[in-house]
Design goal:
The complex is a heterodimer of chains A (248) and B (264).
Chain A (H helix, E strand, L loop, with lengths): L1 H16 L1 H21 L1 H6 L5 H23 L1 H7 L1 H6 L5 H29 L10 H25 L6 H14 L12 H9 L1 H14 L6 H24 L4
Helix pairs in contact in A: 1-7, 2-4, 2-7, 4-7, 4-8, 4-11, 7-8, 8-11, 8-12, 11-12
Chain B lengths: L1 E10 L2 E11 L4 E5 L6 H8 L7 E6 L8 H5 L2 E4 L11 H11 L4 H14 L15 H12 L6 E5 L7 H18 L2 E5 L3 H7 L2 E6 L2 E6 L1 H8 L4 H9 L10 H11 L6
Parallel strand pairs in B: 3-7, 3-8, 5-6, 6-7
Antiparallel strand pairs in B: 1-2, 1-4, 8-9
Classes of the chains: A mainly alpha (248), B alpha/beta (264).
Chain lengths: 248, 264
């Protein structure tokens, strides 16, 4: 247990020390929130869909959690590059504990990032329908971060170096984000897009956040939780398996 | 304490370690010498569970590092050849993480951290981020960290690389003292033959993945009719310089390997 704690603490310390990175990582969500939120606002309104800022805010929070958690897992590559991975791998600690410590650290950081974006959204005019459902929204942030931190570990354990990073970004992370319904409602699309959005686990995370913060959603919150938990468990097992196989 | 039998490791067509066998007794200091790229680090990686051998068997204190990985990891400590510190943390935090990972009790951890950081003259700067350290300081921290817990077997992979004579002297004094006081078995590699001659009880010389000589420093000198270990080493391994740089095909292979299963 001490090992899990110390590795969790390591992730948190590294995050809190990189102030510049924290600010930098909030730049993209702010662009989406402000430029898209206000830029498409009138079109969205005319289509009879209500406030676009209200609609997109949970999506942008989900995006922030997605990026932050998946990169925490892929951060294994940095540990490999700088050698610290070896130090962890030869230690007399089950690799499972190492992975759990790291993953919990990544999840904590992701949820903090999500809450920062939520705060920014509140400042620019976003209002949740029911404040009492905020803990539920945080629960969905945790679920999203679990799924994608595990995916990140699986990917990070399978790559050798940073060369594959662009590939992962363009063919995994961005599609997950764009297909998740973070920016558009998950209704009324043609069947190819409909299927793609249903396969994307982030769709359920963001849908759950909308259920919590806006009180309306495409699926039921129970479905959202079930899918996220199921995918999370599968990815944890896959991630742990890949992590166990790492050779230096 | 360490038993290696017909150990082989191939990377594709290249054989890094070719049918190597040796034994290191408990309480012994064994120096593993060889030119660059001879297979020293690969052997250490296999012994320390970081790499799976192609064939052959190994025992660490009776345990197989391939199957009883977790148990085997409890037996050894290692100072790596290349950096393994977290630069975003301070020296004290790096020591702390290591102590926790190796189950050193809280009190002993603090006490030994202070002793070791003072010994390697890092104590005043223990709260600085490691990324701001000079190369020599990082190296000293790696070594100090390696001594934080007392394992049964200590692997030192070119520990003196980049160290000044003072720190080198400290290091070997310390290695000898843990070896004598706590019967720690030491397995080390180095390019400084005088060090090996001075510190090691027995020596193994590896070249092109094959073990070419084994014995006490005196035996090896005698067998080759050399005055110094350096001469003996050159006689055994030749005077050509080994080329380690990767060709473009190697780099392509590297790139392809990235996508293969099992990562290395």
């Amino acid at each position: 247990m001490r090992a899990i704690y110390i590795l969790w603490l390591r992730e948190l310390k590294r995050y809190l020390r990189s102030r510049v990175q924290i600010v930098a990582s909030l730049g993209q969500p702010m662009l989406y929130l402000l430029v898209l939120g206000f830029g498409l606002g009138s079109v969205f309104q005319k289509a009879g869909m209500g406030s676009y800022l209200q609609f997109i805010a949970p999506g942008i929070i989900g995006m922030t959690v997605l990026f932050s958690s998946i990169f925490s897992g892929i951060g294994l590559l940095w540990d490999r590059q700088f050698g610290f991975l070896k130090e962890m791998l030869v230690a007399p600690v089950p690799r499972m504990e190492i992975m759990i410590g790291r993953t919990l650290g990544g999840m904590t950081v992701s949820v903090i990032q999500g809450l920062l974006v939520l705060a920014i959204a509140l400042i620019v005019g976003f209002r949740p329908v029911n404040w009492w459902h905020l803990p539920l929204a945080i629960g969905f942030m945790l679920a999203i971060s679990l799924v994608f931190a595990a995916l990140g570990v699986a990917v990070g354990s399978s790559l050798q170096d940073m060369q594959g990073f662009q590939l992962i970004m363009n063919f995994l992370v961005m599609p997950i984000y764009f297909l998740s319904g973070a920016m558009f409602p998950l209704t009324g699309q043609g069947w190819p897009l409909k299927i793609a959005t249903r396969i994307d686990p982030l769709s359920y995370g963001i849908d759950g956040m909308r259920a919590a913060l806006l009180g309306s959603s495409a699926f039921s919150p129970a479905t959202d939780i079930a899918v996220l938990a199921g995918v999370g468990v599968v990815l944890m097992v896959v991630g742990a398996h890949r992590f166990n196989k790492i050779e230096i | 304490m360490i038993e290696v039998n017909s150990l082989v490791k191939r990377f594709g067509a290249f054989t890094a370690v070719d049918d190597v066998s040796f034994t290191v007794e408990e309480g012994e200091i064994f120096a593993f010498l060889g030119p660059n790229g001879a297979g020293k680090t690969t052997t250490i990686k296999m012994l320390t569970t970081l790499l799976k051998p192609t064939s052959g068997s190994m025992r660490l204190d009776g345990l197989d590092p391939m199957t009883a990985q977790h148990e085997a990891r409890k037996k050894f400590g290692i100072v790596f050849q290349d950096p393994s510190l977290d630069g975003e943390l301070t020296a004290a935090e790096n020591m702390e993480i290591h102590g926790v990972l190796y189950h050193v009790p809280h009190k002993a951890r603090r006490q030994r951290t202070e002793e070791l950081l003072k010994l390697f003259e890092l104590w005043e700067r223990r709260n600085e981020l490691v990324k701001k350290y000079s190369g020599g300081m990082k190296r000293r921290l790696e070594i100090a960290r390696g001594f934080l817990h007392t394992p049964k077997i200590l692997f030192l992979d070119e520990p003196t690389l980049g160290l000044d004579p003072q720190s080198r002297n400290q290091l070997w004094t310390h290695v000898k003292s843990v070896n004598e006081a706590e019967r720690v078995t030491v397995f080390l590699t180095t390019h400084y033959m005088d060090e090996a001659d001075r510190v090691a009880h027995r020596i193994g010389i590896i070249d092109h993945g094959k073990l070419v000589a084994q014995g006490t420093p005196a035996e090896i000198k005698e067998r080759t009719g050399s005055e110094t270990l350096e001469d003996a080493f050159l006689k055994l391994t030749g005077t050509t310089i080994r080329d380690e740089s990767a060709s473009s095909t190697d780099q392509m292979r590297q790139f392809a390997k990235m996508w293969q299963r099992g990562g290395r």
